[in-house]
Hints:
The complex is a heterodimer of chains A (about 300) and B (about 280). Chain A has about 300 residues and is mainly alpha-helical.
Amino acid sequence: MRKSRNRKQANISFNKTGYYFIFPALITMFVLIIYPLLYGVYISFFDTNLVNKWDFVGILNFKSILTDLNFYKIILLTLKFSILVVGGHFLIGFILAHALNRNIRGMAIFRSILLLPWLFPEAVIALIFKWIFNPLYGLLNHVLMTVGLTSEPISWLGSKEYAFMMLVFVCIWKGYPMVMTMILAGLQNIDKTLYEAARVDGVSKWQEFLYITLPSLKSVLTVTLVLDTVWWFKHYTMAWVLTNGGPGQETSLISIDIYKTAFEFFDFGKAAAMSVVVFVVCLAISKLYRRLLRDE
Amino acid sequence: MNKKKVKSGKLERKGNTGAVIIMLFFCVIVLLPILWMISTSIKIDSEMVAAVPRWIPETPSLVAYQRFFKDYPFLMQLKNTVIYTLCSTILIVICACFAGYGVTRFEFRGKNAFMSFLLVTQMFPSVMLLVPFYNVIKSLGLLNTYIGMILVYISISVAFATWMMMGFFKSIPLELDEAAIIDGCSRFQTFLKVIMPLTLPGIASVAIFSFITGWNEYMFTSILTTQANMQTITIGITSLNGERVMWNDMMAASVISSIPLVIVFMFLQKYFVSGMTSGAVKG
Lengths: 296, 283
């Protein structure tokens, strides 16, 4: 480690050149990410509609959010949603990555098909499922009624019982290929001789998984877990297209709530304050993961 | 050696049947909705509301596809999508390449802060950018313009793309830089002529990632474009999502809007899968 660092420094005689290289990315991020973010934090201290009302209110927005029970309810709902979706991604991702990590003829075809959900735009996927779940002419109700599992059509996205789980299902369907790909690559990086040695020692499959596979995948899993969780925690598109957050507030994820606060109620200050809180939650989640999965 | 191979082959084969069954099961779950979309897209209006839906339509027809070109602004919106996505992808890849090279080849102050910032950006809810963006773009007079939208698309994936790119540059040994410099290349020439060609697989995967993300974009575009002729195809399709839905038209548009992505991916799949992961595994 040390050696390579020394070499690096020897190799690099002019320090400023590094800045030239990161300059394009840095300036882009400054203008397009950092500045808008700071602006967002700034707005969160105002009661504003962005046009003719700019009243400085200090931390009042935060106060009103953090004392609002409904906000906690929505955060909890979003957490439940992300845990279910990410859990689904990892369960399916693990199963399929294990299955794909073999030498079977035609494996490339399986892999291509299993990656397909990644390629379709979220809005399109939401519409396809909305059509399948359609209470009157949808495929799902027709199949269930033909088989006899239900006697009358179910309004999948319009009923409090089903809407949330349906949304979770669609989000798992859309998002598992990324996790699967990551795990598969991790599996292919594991030294095969480890397994051979374990087999000689008479280790069971489950122990193999627990003591060889999981530890070897740790670094891939940590990154994937953090990204997948925060990405889905902030998810917006499919929930919006499928249910608009309804029925009632059953599928009102935090991003949808922020969106409505800003662009339906034009309370931009409060929306920005809510975003800041979400950022803190996401940061806390990633810190928590890193602590739990840290290498000793 | 040979014996060993046969033995381990046998062991592997034992689990293969199970693996194939599992994969077949999931392939069916993946393919059913996609096939249903295609099936719906070639149905005529009256069959949409048939009491018994059929997989193969009674009278297959391309009428929905004809209407795609005639009755809706979809073609225009498809063009917009291509412009936004392609331009932003090119610019993102350029930024990511330079930054990836700079971060892996040089020591400078703020480097670690820069690198961790790339990941921290993933924690910000994009809705949070939406409010400021709306105001910034509006005050610059860039609402409903190509430049404004391309900027927005860049902001969506530039940070993650840069982070992915770093993984690739890290995997290329520094000795190559040294050799090139000894041979009389300048830093920039080394970057452009020696190192860049070696990271082509990485560039391909970063490009596909940005392309998919851009093509997927929905929220920003729905707020920041208010004119139909500046919107993207996904916005156009979802705007049909109302009380009385023409499902066949909608599915035909969905098919057309998904085809470019599938084609791009099928050609570059090899790079993408290896690339997506080598950035993450090593990063």
